[in-house]
Amino acid sequence: MFEAINRHLIMELLYIYIWNDKRNIRGCEYNFSPNYKFSYQPGTKTFYMEERSSLPNNWFGDNIHNITAIVGKNGAGKTNLLDCIIKALCGQEGGFIFYKYNNLIYSNIPNQVNDYNFDFKVERFDRFGSPLNSEFKEHVNDTFVVFYSPTIDRSLSNKHSHYSKFRDLSNSYILRQPLSRLTQTPEYAQISDVDIMQTNDIFKLLLFFIYSHEYKHSVFESIKLPEYFELKLLYYSDQEPQHPTYKVLSSDVPTEKFKARLKKFILTQIFLLERNYPESWDNETTFEEVLLSLNNGENYRPNIFDTLCQLYDSGDIIYKEELTGLRKGYYEFKCKIRIGAISQELINALYCYYNFIPMAPYASFGTMQSNISNAQVVINYGMSSGERALYTFFSRLIGEIFGKQGEIHHAAINKIIHDNKYDGKTIIILLDEPDLQLHPEWQQKFIDMLLHLLWLYFPKVNFQIIITTHSPILLSDIPKSNVIFIDKNPDGSSTVCDEVNLKETFAANIHSLYNNSFFLDGIPIGCFAKRKVEELYDKINNDVLSDNIIEDIYRIGEPIIRGVLLKLYDEKRKSSKKSERIKMLKKELSKLEEEANND
């Protein structure tokens, strides 16, 4: 059993008051802990606090200090709230926060601001700034903030942001980064920002699969991993290299088609690069010498040719020879590699192949932060886009935390270990609608999988999770005491609802959650269906009882709506002629018999 976390040194965000975010949040306060309730009176500039005991410690897990869900109408300010939390924690205004650390209540309101009052004991600093800034000896040095969103239209952090102890893993942030910060792309490779982001994610996915194998336990038993992934190597050119070494080596290829094509492809790509080759290279230079140059002359680094050939010889590669001609300015080499054969050696070989002078001995989660490959590695066998989104999220998050743990590189044996320097410290995870691309089945499993993964890999790191969502399925995993309900005022500004007047969310019925927690009027059905139901009601109410009316009624899946229409239909039918009533009764009897047979 793992040692218990020292909870005295855990930081937990408890509360934020936002006076004006210059968008739609004005004078709003948000409580994140079920065991404390803070409030602010602007007239007297006084903060109040009361302790509660709504949820036992470790209720979500031994290393999960708290989870808070933020729900409400679209445009109510959920994402803006996360933005303010980031700014307040990382030292760029945002709002007044209170947090607990070392069994004391702290605030980012400094002592120099002396016109605020508190009815409880609070620790304050001598200056403004991030409470996480390690440059200030009195500030918290043991907490880090991570943000993730699958959308591409956020502006939470940008090139002008200088956040302390913060990492943005969102799609929008990654796509906004200058190319030079993301990759050392060779001049011949002309690929889009999205391709670069996806390639980086694929490398992290492969690393994540390796870690999962090493821990000999999978939390993804319900999600079928693809048996193979496709590796596609590309070079962009319409020229033939003229170097004498290339001419000799490219004519001396193995008899095996896979190895021959692979060798020719690697040689062509190498010699098409604009780089200074050793003057000693001539028609006597060996292929091994050329491969060694890819690895910066260090023979402990794996090379792409030998690694792929070994996988091919062991039956872990499926290769189908295709036409090798020029295709719109590029050549490609592709094969399928068995997922179970993924190794650190394979990833290192790919990394070295596309980064001639790697800044680290081999690819790892840490090196992926600043140096990525321009290889196109596509996993597209047996994995849906929703499963891909789920894996992408987990691989980014787990990779970031492993980086905080401290990777130690043993390149000679292709092994990564960690010094676990972040044990006993806190990571605050902010998730903005991570369920957007997920099938309801994956939404149902998301929270449980996340908690399981964080415990499996990082049992001694403490986590606080704040998540915005439109999914009642996710919300059903969170008690009402841990939910912030946000609505919109008539002028569009944000308002926080009193959860006392709302129903319990934990393990609640999905239909109830739609009505109660997401502020939808009436039974939550699609607008098109609602319009059709209203049209059907008007027809029945106006005695327009056509032959297909009863079929339309029984087409409705919601029993409450169907029952109301059947009652109205029955009342209107009684006023019809006997012949019409008999006809309609027979029709209804037929539908009832059909329904009974289907039950």
Can you tell me about this structure?
A 7-stranded mixed β-sheet has the order 10-9-17-18-5-19-20, with helices on both faces. Strands 2-1-6-7 form a 4-stranded antiparallel β-sheet, with helices on one face. With 599 residues, the chain is α/β, with parallel strands linked by helices. The protein has 17 helices and 20 strands.
Question: Top keywords for this entry?
Answer:
599 residues, alpha/beta, 7-stranded mixed beta sheet, 4-stranded antiparallel beta sheet, 20 strands, 34% helix, flat, disordered N terminus
Q: Termini distance?
A: 50 Å
- Strand % is 15-25%
How large is the radius of gyration?
30 Å
Number of strands: 20
Outline the low-pLDDT stretches: 1-5, 179-191, 357-363, 368-376
- Helical amount among residues, as a percent range? 25-40%
Biggest sheet features: 7 strands, mixed
Report the total helices: 17
**Going across the major beta sheet, what is the strand order?**
10-9-17-18-5-19-20
Oligomer: single chain
Instruction: Find the structural class using helix and strand composition.
Output: alpha/beta
Mean pLDDT metric: 77
Task: Specify the overall morphology.
Answer: flat
